[in-house]
Amino acid sequence: MAVMAAVAVMSSLVATGSTATRAAADGPGPDKPTIRYTEYGIPHIIASNWEGLGTGYGYAAAKDNICTLADTYLMVNAQRSRHLGPEGKTSPGQNQNTTTNLNSDLYFQRIKDNQVVERLLDKPAPDGPEPEVREAIRGYVQGYNRYLTETGVNNITDPACRGAAWVRPITELDVYRHAHAEIIMGSADALLDGQMNAAPPGASPAAQPASSPAKTAAKIRDAMAASRQQSMGSNALAVGSQGVSDGTSMLLANPHFPWQGKNRMWQSQLTIPGKTNVSGASLLGFPAVNIGYNENVAWSHTIATVAPFGLFDVQVDPLNPTKYLVDGVWEQMTSQRVGVDVLKPDGSLSKVTRTLWSTRYGPITTSMQGVALPWVVSAHAVRDVNMDNLRALNSWFRLNQAKDVHDVVNTLETTQGVPFFNTVASDRKGNALYADIQATPNITDEHARSCLTQTGQLLFNQSLRLPNVPPISILDGKRSACDWPEDPNAAAPGLLDPNKQPRLIRSDFVGNANDSAWLANPEQPLTFPRVMGDTSAPRSLRTQELILTAQNRINGTDGLPGKGFTPETMRQLLFADNSRAADLALNATVTMCQNAPFGLILVDGNLVNVSEACPILAAWKNHDYTADSRGSWLFANYWSLLLNGQGIEKLPWRVPFDPKDPVHTPNSLDTGSSAVREAFGRAVLALRKANIPLNAPLSDIQKVTRGGEQIPIHGSISQLGVLNVITPGQVDGKLDIVYGSSFIQQVRFTADGPPQASSVMAYSQSANPNSPHYADQTKLFSAGKWVTERFTEGQIAASPELQTKVLN
Asked: Is 234 a catalytic site residue?
């Protein structure tokens, strides 16, 4: 009966409008939240109000990923140690940086004890959640709990949490705590352990003499660079009317998010007739679309080069190091005793407590990204620009209803809620938008010159920094004037004026691949405060590849027929898996290999025969990381060894970087360099030791295992300048994909008619190995195929796999 009722509701919706595209916008909507599943388990949720929409989202999300969500709520409630033990590893950002369950629990317990989230919820909008946000989250809780009640903990089909005591009904506060944890992720990843381990001199073995400013700055810079290379990223390309064939604009969304854990994305369409109709993906547990499109606008996000935190160097009293100097007066740090329950080996519980310290600027930390910041003559305090930010929820709910790119800009400026993300968008009118308008510390260039410490200057102002490493500020905490000033134009205290943040609207293209805003389009370089990133500095190879891909397609010089983007050429160019590094260095490397005396290269005093590698690389003419490419794995190992964690500008190029030609320089690799020869020899040696043939196809090496089946995965690491980023690694002791292309979506607008979209969820909708949607889209991604999306009521009704659930 429920299915028949839902079909009747859907049929009436289709009938209310003169066209299928009008159907979702007209009429009252169904009395009960209704979930329509189409191909690959994609839910299209329709309701008559925000609470009902949230209910449908919560039910459907729990059905696909109950264990991942329950584990997330366990984390934000500081109970991992209680149920899983204190020594287990967790990662607030689900990237390569891991902390223990104990430190994670202490971190989130302090947030709970301080009622950070509760205080934000007590604020009216716009500082607190807007009414529709509160209604949707109220419904989400009902939907999640309904699924859990209907299923029962002991009947959950996912073995990751079946029968687990920590799987429980949730509250609205749980959902807001999760949202807050995602918003502060940009600072928690780098500073969580340092805050939890901070103790005055003599009380902790971490108290040790400080390094020189230059050494400390170099260590932090290198650690942040390594972290950025091993964590989330994204590409996004918006093409305006001048760059589209047979359409007004297009958008490519290509986030590189984790394939496991709480930062998995999940796809849905959310519709309240007459109020909102939006399709795309969100981080699990967010009853809104983070990356997607509506009738008139499509948008995506990329990780920005803004550090969402800053440090303050405070001088401490050598006789009483919990006192610090501000404006010539000693102030006492505040101490806070935080305790969590811990599971002991015998199954009993004990309480672990720790004293945590704070200043007027924020908590004390004794490390950043694993680099020691000893508490000796001075200490370092953290201020997090997002600790008081729940505005991000308002930002995404408003983006879901944007009418054009100008509406997107207005949303970003008035909420300033987007955390550490760029926004790239296109609209039906033919505009392409890039905007880095977000919650940013109010550190103007003048403020930086006045207040940066010596170490801070080296970190903040380095002229040739490693790509994608944000400017880290360390300000003089001895002067209260060095705290982040309040700006009357900002949405909250301590934020940078949004009018000073970069944005660009064009009719050809704009894009971002995690470099700063400088070259969103090279024809119109942008300027902005240094706190937001660098200018006139080398771009990553991925940024170069994105720009060249856009330019060549619009000009028709990429070898494909015609000019301008179509959905097919967008797919072809992304899944060509071209390597910009190979474009720049392969031919020279082949020549070096062929000219090696007797085919030998000296490595660590031993001669390595590389002659076998020369014809293999010479035959790798497409420079691609498609599944059947041969020689690509050898080149990837060689390039990684050559970079050794450095930026591309540090390699021995014959033509150095030129800010007047930033897309094509540096170039011409100097293969006469011993570093180049040795890296090549080491790569050949490494593959032989691993028993990997030098000409092995990528599909033999780069795979994921789903249900006992090994699925080849195309693409490669960011450092190779491949847009389709794929980063393999160890997950629970097995080879898997750690992060990379996750939810890929392209959207085309025309002058009229519904948006035309296709997408693929690289790791599929569900993390449950017993779900039919555990690997279906992964196989699709492996084959280079996409799902043609269904947006209108008519398109949804026409699905041959339509299944309907009415939440009575």
From this structure: yes
Q: Is 173 left (phi over 0), alpha (psi -120 to 50) or beta?
A: alpha
Catalytic: which of 48, 81, 91, 234? 234
Provide the pairing of β-strand 309-317 with 474-476.
Answer: parallel
Residue 489: count of CB within 10 angstroms of its CB:
12
Q: How confident is the model at residue 6 (pLDDT cuts 50, 70, 90)?
A: very low
Which amino acid appears at position 593 of this protein? C
Between the alpha carbon of residue 206 and those of residues 319, 355, 490, the distances in Å are: 18, 15, 38
DSSP per-residue codes, 529-556: -GGG--SSSPPPHHHHHHHHHHHHHHHT
- The per-residue pLDDT of the chain, averaged, comes to 93
Residue 213: Cβ-neighbour burial (10 angstroms; 0-12, 13-18, 19+): middle
Could you report the per-residue pLDDT of 246-268, keeping only the tens digit for each? 999 999 999 999 999 999 999 99
Q: How confident is the model at residue 25 (pLDDT cuts 50, 70, 90)?
A: very low
Name the DSSP letter for residue 664. T
CA-based nearest residue to 238, from 557, 508, 516: 508
Q: Rounded to whole angstroms, how far apart are CA atoms 193 and 708?
A: 37
**Alpha-carbon span 396 to 408, nearest angstrom:** 10
Query: b/e for 111-148, b at 16 or more Cβ within 10 A?
Result: bbeeebbeebbeeeebbbbbebbbbbbbbbbbbbbbbb
How many angstroms separate the CA atoms of 579 and 576, rounded? Answer: 9
Q: How confident is the model at residue 3 (pLDDT cuts 50, 70, 90)?
A: very low
Mean pLDDT of 305-311: 96
Mean pLDDT for 19-27 is 46
Using one digit for the tens of pLDDT, what is the confidence trace for 586-613? 999 999 999 999 999 999 999 999 999 9
Tell me what pLDDT residue 10 has: 42
CA distance 89 to 105: 11
Strand spans (E) along 718-789: 726-731, 734-741, 743-749, 756-761, 787-788
Q: pLDDT tens across 355-376, in order?
A: 999 999 999 999 999 999 999 9
Closest by CA to 783, choosing from 694, 688, 708, 699, is: 699
* Tally of CB atoms within 10 A around 18: 9
Q: How far apart are CA 680 and CA 655, in angstroms?
A: 21
DSSP per-residue string spanning 414-432: HH----SEEEEEEETTS-E
Quick one: what percent of the chain has pLDDT higher than 90? 88
Q: Under a CB-based contact definition with an 8 Å cutoff, are residues 746 and 603 in contact?
A: no
Number of helical H runs and strand E runs in the chain:
22, 36
